[in-house]
Amino acid sequence: MQQQSGSNMRLWVLPSRGAGGAYFIGTGFLLLLNVLVSAFLTGWALNQGQWQAGAEWLGAGLAFASVVAVAFMYLLVSLIHLKRHIKVTVLFGLLLLQQARYLDGLEQVLLFSGDWLDLTEDVLFLFGAIVLAVGMTLWVILTYRLSTLDKLTRVHNRRYFEGALQRYLLSRRQEACCLLVMDLDDFKAINDNHGHASGDRVLKILGEVLRQNARREDVICRSGGEEFEMLLVGVSLATAQQIAQRIMHCIKAATPDDLPTLTASMGLTSVLPEDDVDRLRSRADKAMYMAKEQGKARIVLL
């Protein structure tokens, strides 16, 4: 290998050190551009056996491509709606993997090797893979949580609740269980008289009240509009009624000063052995509508 060409190549390749060749796309696929770059780099070096005149242009192109790659990586990952600690973990893992790929390519291109280089490459690859796996796992968990939550109220959405209810009924546990359905009274009047921003504020208040009064095993959801459901696991109908009364009191107490007193009509029923999802929810809905017909702001057991 010609010394001059090798020196030029070393100068051009070194600026690419630390450049991440990977970026996220919205569907969560990871495209490792640096793998393609390293594969091309290694293959070219092995086929040539030595650097010919003008080979430094390859180094310049690779350095430029690495700069563009890391710019895309930081830009696209920063645009994705992820928690900061997840972004940092993923980026750090990508950079460690890039370092390992870079050392591998550098070893082949400059035709030198050493135990310290091989060990460093292996350590970087191992830790990079671990860190990236942790970051991707956190990202998947966050994505799943966001897909099951109602964005406004931060309680579960209807799809998640139906699945949880179905799983509970299929398990046919021996413990008592109750379903509470509630609908905010006169919510349309709040939207019409005070604006939709106030309506959203009221929904957030109700979501917060339900979360504060729920136990770990309970499941809450916003099933649509101003209607919410709550699966109370391991409680009798009498205990569930006490919980509903406490929720009713907390809703009234949480009323903002600029809005009329908040109340809700609630329907409460216990889970029967012969129930399926539709039958159980239909009975709870019927109890809730009976509460509406009887004057609102009350709890009806059925």
Q: How far is it from the N-terminal to the C-terminal residue, by CA?
A: 88 Å
What's the arrangement of strands in the largest beta sheet? 3-5-6-4-7-8
Any idea what the CATH architecture of the largest domain is? Answer: 2-Layer Sandwich
Please write the CATH class name of the largest domain: Alpha Beta
* Content-based structural category: alpha/beta
Strand count: 8
Helix content: 55-70%
Outline the low-pLDDT stretches: 1-36, 49-56
What percent strand? 5-15%
Q: Gyration radius, to the nearest Å? A: 30 Å
CATH topology of the largest domain: Alpha-Beta Plaits
Q: How many strands, which pairing sense, and closed or not: the largest β-sheet?
A: 6 strands, mixed
- Report the order of strands and helices: HEEHHHHEHEHHEEHEHE
How many helices does DSSP assign?
A: 10
Mean of all residue-level pLDDT scores = 71
Specify the overall morphology: elongated
The overall number of domains is 2
State the oligomer: single chain
Q: What is the CATH H-level superfamily of the largest domain?
A: Reverse transcriptase/Diguanylate cyclase domain
Cofactor: Mg(2+)
InterPro entries: Diguanylate_Cyclase, GGDEF_dom, Nucleotide_cyclase, Rev_trsase/Diguanyl_cyclase
Domain GGDEF: 175-302
EC number: 2.7.7.65
Give the SSE map.
Elements: H1 3-13, E1 22-24, E2 30-32, H2 33-48, H3 56-79, H4 84-109, H5 115-148, E3 156-157, H6 158-171, E4 177-184, H7 187-194, H8 196-213, E5 219-224, E6 227-233, H9 237-253, E7 264-270, H10 277-293, E8 299-301
Parallel strand pairs: 3-5, 7-8
Antiparallel strand pairs: 1-2, 4-6, 4-7, 5-6
Helix pairs in contact: 1-3, 2-3, 2-4, 4-5, 7-8, 8-9
GO molecular function: diguanylate cyclase activity
GO biological process, one term: negative regulation of bacterial-type flagellum-dependent cell motility
Pfam families: GGDEF
